[in-house]
């Protein structure tokens, strides 16, 4: 695992930058929820491209985060024991979540109302007085905390004794089991979306996507136990990379057909049993498995050497993830008067936000006490 840490840490940094670009895309016309949108989702070519970008990200990148988190969960639990492990999780996940709910979330929302002429502090006071909870992207910390507690409960009741547990390398499951997993996630997602469609939050969580998140977190745990990442190679991944190439354009084609068929109406990809909702639920895991394999293999082969610059980026990635909404919204609002094409503003705003957040995170991770958390 020590050797693999180089590329795994770099993947987390790249995925963090991709989260920023994902939210920037929503700002300029991509589909999704965000604090502020300069352009609403529409049939414009730029909006369609940004929507496809967001849909592709959503299919795999947060699930990828859960897989990487699962990869380090059992080893951490077995080294620290239940009490110390859970305390660490509450410090590393719970405190940033609380800070976002109390400070960063309201401050980001207040930036928007201030730009709209409704004042900054009145929004802060209103949110506090009415106990409005904004977890923003820290829903991930909230979910990972729940998953960690759930894993501890499962290990305590059904799992192996922590002291006696050890890694047991076994072959990667054959492709048919990957297919079973993809179909199982798709069916579970469709079942959840009959009651909780995509876009609807329950306690700040989009449960419509959680079958894939739970599955990939469990895959990460199993991958650590059985040493699957070391065994992953192009031969095993090839069928799913081919599936990715076949499946990826299907959503774009489906969107075009659905828009044409709906006329003035709006096609439903969010839930129910329409062909569009079924297409979307099936499309996600078939795209995700291929993209996750590609990222893992390319980074393991080409990004697994020591680098001072990457070490600097990796150490600040979690702080960047926590603070990026405030700076992204602030930069987008500053650039709002600038008349430029949506894709140009997406590229400029996203780049400026990434650079700004990493620079601001540098002194944050040096603060005594805070550095232990982020």
Give your account of this protein's structure:
It contains twelve helices and no strands. Helices cover about 75% and strands about 0% of the residues. Helix 2 (about 45-115) crosses helix 9 and helix 10 packs across helix 11 (about 340-365). The protein is globular. It has about 375 residues and is mostly helical. The mean pLDDT is about 95.
Features of this protein?
12 helices; globular; mainly alpha; 374 residues; single chain
Topology:
Layout: H1 5-27, H2 45-115, H3 121-129, H4 139-157, H5 175-193, H6 210-226, H7 228-231, H8 234-262, H9 275-302, H10 308-334, H11 342-364, H12 370-373
Distance between the termini: 22 Å
Please give the share of residues in helix.
Answer: over 70%
Cα-atom radius of gyration? 21 Å
* Number of beta strands: 0
Portion of residues in beta strands equals under 5%
Structural class: mainly alpha
Order of helices and strands: HHHHHHHHHHHH
Low-confidence stretches: none
Q: Number of DSSP helices?
A: 12
Short description:
This protein is mainly alpha-helical and 374 residues long. The protein is built from twelve helices and no strands.
């Amino acid at each position: 695992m020590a050797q693999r840490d180089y590329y795994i840490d770099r993947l987390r940094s790249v995925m963090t930058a991709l989260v920023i670009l994902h939210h920037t895309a929503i700002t300029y016309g991509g589909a999704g929820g965000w604090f502020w949108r300069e352009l609403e989702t529409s049939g414009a070519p730029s909006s369609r491209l940004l929507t496809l970008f967001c849909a592709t990200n959503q299919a795999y990148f947060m699930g990828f985060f859960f897989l990487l988190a699962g990869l380090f969960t059992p080893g951490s639990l077995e080294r620290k024991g239940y009490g110390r492990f859970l305390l660490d999780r509450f410090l590393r996940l719970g405190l940033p979540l609380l800070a976002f709910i109390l400070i960063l979330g309201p401050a980001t929302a207040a930036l928007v109302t201030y730009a709209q002429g409704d004042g900054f502090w009145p929004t802060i006071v209103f949110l506090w007085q009415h106990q409005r909870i904004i977890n923003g992207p820290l829903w991930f910390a909230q979910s990972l905390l729940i998953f960690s507690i759930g894993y501890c409960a499962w290990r305590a009741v059904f799992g192996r004794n922590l002291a006696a547990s050890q890694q047991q390398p076994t072959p990667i499951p054959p492709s048919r089991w990957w297919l079973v997993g993809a179909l199982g996630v798709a069916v579970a997602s469709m079942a959840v979306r009959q009651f909780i469609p995509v876009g609807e939050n329950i306690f700040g969580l989009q449960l419509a996507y959680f079958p894939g998140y739970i599955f990939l977190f469990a895959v990460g745990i199993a991958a650590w136990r059985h040493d699957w990442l070391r065994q992953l190679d192009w031969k095993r991944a090839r069928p799913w990379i081919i599936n990715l190439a076949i499946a990826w354009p299907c959503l774009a084609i489906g969107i075009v057909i659905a828009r044409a068929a709906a006329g003035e109406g709006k096609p439903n990809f969010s839930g129910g049993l329409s062909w569009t909702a079924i297409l979307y639920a099936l499309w996600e895991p078939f795209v995700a498995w291929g993209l996750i394999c590609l990222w893992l293999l390319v980074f393991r082969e080409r990004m697994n050497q020591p680098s001072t610059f990457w070490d600097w980026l990796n150490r600040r990635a979690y702080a960047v993830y926590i603070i990026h909404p405030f700076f992204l919204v602030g930069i987008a609002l500053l650039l709002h008067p600038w008349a430029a094409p949506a894709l140009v503003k997406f590229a400029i705003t996203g780049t400026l936000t990434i650079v700004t957040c990493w620079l601001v995170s540098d002194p944050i991770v040096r603060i005594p006490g805070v550095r232990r958390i982020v």
